[in-house]
Write a structure and sequence with these properties.
The chain is mostly helical. It is built from 22 helices and 13 strands.
Length: 533
């Protein structure tokens, strides 16, 4: 069984699945791993017949802090203010900095088939007073919370510290205030100029009733309060939060000892690394989520996360590599296997579940989707660069039957992705400019390479392959017959058609050209070299 099916089999009764995000800047594509995982869990629970609610929240009462300061999005003059009260620095009609970045991220969800039953913003929740009972309980049990921080995380707060962050009535900052002396209704507050290194408080002092949106709980306390408020039963989180003594351990202990409830089931998930390094919003490293959706269609973007178990690191480097074409190839391979076609290579455990959960719609006809014809990404990347090619006619010739409307839609989708990839991420070797005539660089071909080209021309003159795979196999066979190393054989093809010694997959390059034109160019490049039988 797939990991999500395994989790669904462990629980009974109604379920509430939750996730949330602090919108401290542009959200990178790696942050989509959590929402996709939660959506897969929700689909698995509902497939079992369990009543399930999916929630997604935005922690926009958090301060603009040191993490935000590391991003180019930070607004220095508002350091320490709640993100919900920082103006949208882009000025594109969002109510705040938080609404801009969170909404840009959330807008990707529907396109990925992720449809939470409820979105919530903490800046909307606090003013309603819904969290006031939890604020009161946390302040009444402040000593227990201080002890939890000490026992679980070795974090020692002074005896006067209270688990509440008041919004300064004078300067509006929340990251610079220190609260003490809870009297049952109010706390003493100082907005300290030197409380943190990344923001300066104004020095105001006074007493504040920390209810109705005048204050917020510290993150670990707020997280556990959310679980009680919303009745959360399952909430996976990133590995960084799940380390021993980390945020999840603290919040779990606070849930049990302060709010007297069992914390939700955790499923710690690993990072998405780019070039072997963790993607990080705070360090400005990694493609923005909304930009990655321009090159990866929904099902391939879901597949990027679903094909690995949550506890596995995903290494993905789209810039200047074949990572994106390979992702499409693997998706197509699992589709073929799910449809019952023979595919090359070992299949991952649960490949049918991986394919099913990668589909955009939870109620999709899996068998029909698996049987749908999908043109290879790398081949399309060649075809769109060759003048005069009618893509749909070429793809129908490869399929050997007309495309269905679904297949035409997929072709259009992939062509858009191919063009974006060529413009943004493709390595130089993928950029193709087929010469109108034999390139001058072909003069560098030696006698063995010319003999190979002549032998290849004779082999395909009467019956040329019709697919990239067919051409690729033919090239390897012809090189073996000619006693020529494959690397040198492929270099001969590239010199003959591109005027350089490298390029995209040669078989797909030749498959994109009229067979008679290929034969003519091969014979011209062979240059009259006698080919032995």
């Amino acid at each position: 069984m797939d990991w999500a099916d395994e989790l669904a089999a462990r629980v009974e009764g109604p379920q509430v699945v939750n996730d949330s995000k602090t919108p401290s800047g542009t959200v990178h594509v790696g942050s989509l791993r959590g929402p996709v995982i939660l959506d897969v869990i929700t689909r698995a629970l509902r497939a079992r017949g369990l009543e399930t609610q999916l929630l997604y929240g935005v922690d926009d009462m958090d301060p603009m802090d040191a993490q935000a300061l590391l991003t180019p999005d930070a607004v220095d003059r508002y350091m320490g203010a709640p993100l919900a009260r920082v103006p949208d620095q882009v000025g594109d009609c969002h109510a705040s900095y938080a609404r801009h970045h969170a909404q840009t991220f959330i807008d990707t969800f529907a396109s990925l088939g992720i449809v939470p039953d409820r979105y919530y913003w903490m800046s909307d929740i606090y003013p309603t007073g819904e969290l006031d009972p939890y604020i009161r309980l946390a302040l009444d049990r402040a000593a227990t919370i201080r002890d939890i921080y000490r026992r679980v995380a070795n974090v020692r707060h002074p005896e006067s510290w209270l688990p509440i962050s008041v919004i300064c009535p004078n300067c509006g900052k929340v990251g610079t205030t220190f609260a003490t002396d809870w009297d049952g209704e109010t706390v003493a507050v100082t907005c300290r100029p030197d409380l943190v290194a990344w923001a300066e408080g104004c020095g105001w002092q006074g007493r504040v009733a920390p209810f109705g949106g005048a204050a917020k709980l510290p993150w670990n306390v707020e997280w556990s309060a959310q679980w009680s408020l919303f009745g959360v039963t399952i909430e996976p989180c990133g590995k960084d939060l799940s380390t021993a003594g980390g945020s999840r351990d603290r919040s779990d202990a606070i849930a049990r000892e302060v709010f007297e409830r069992e914390p939700p089931i955790n499923l710690a998930y690993e990072f998405l690394n780019i070039g072997g390094r963790k993607m990080s919003t705070s360090k400005g490293r990694g493609a923005a989520a909304h930009e990655m959706t321009d090159v990866l269609p929904p099902e391939q973007l879901r597949f990027l996360f679903v094909r690995h178990r949550p506890n596995e690191v995903i290494d993905f480097d789209p810039d200047g590599t074949d990572a994106i074409p390979r992702l499409f190839d693997e998706f197509d391979r699992l589709a073929g296997a799910t449809a019952g076609r023979e595919v090359k290579g070992e299949l991952p455990t649960g490949y049918e579940s991986i394919f099913r959960y990668s589909l955009l719609h939870a109620d999709a006809d899996v068998a029909a989707e698996a049987a749908t014809y999908r043109p290879q990404f790398a081949h399309l990347a060649l075809l769109v660069q060759i003048p005069g090619v009618t893509l749909e006619a070429h793809v129908e010739a490869e399929k050997e039957s007309p495309l269905t409307q679904r297949e035409r839609d997929l072709l259009d989708e992939r062509v858009r992705s191919v063009r974006t990839w060529l413009e943004t991420y493709a390595p130089e070797r993928a950029i193709v400019a087929i010469r109108d005539s034999l390139p001058a660089e072909a003069a560098a071909l030696d006698a063995a390479q010319r003999a190979f080209l002549g032998r290849l021309a004779d082999r395909v003159a009467d019956a040329a392959p019709t697919s990239g795979d067919g051409w690729q196999a033919t090239l390897f066979d012809a090189a073996a017959d000619a006693g020529l190393e494959a690397k040198r054989a492929f270099a001969a093809i590239y010199l003959t058609f591109l005027g350089r010694s490298n390029g995209p997959r040669a078989g797909w390059l030749l498959a994109s050209l009229p067979p008679e034109a290929v034969v003519d160019r091969l014979r011209e490049a062979a240059g009259g070299v006698e080919v032995s039988a």
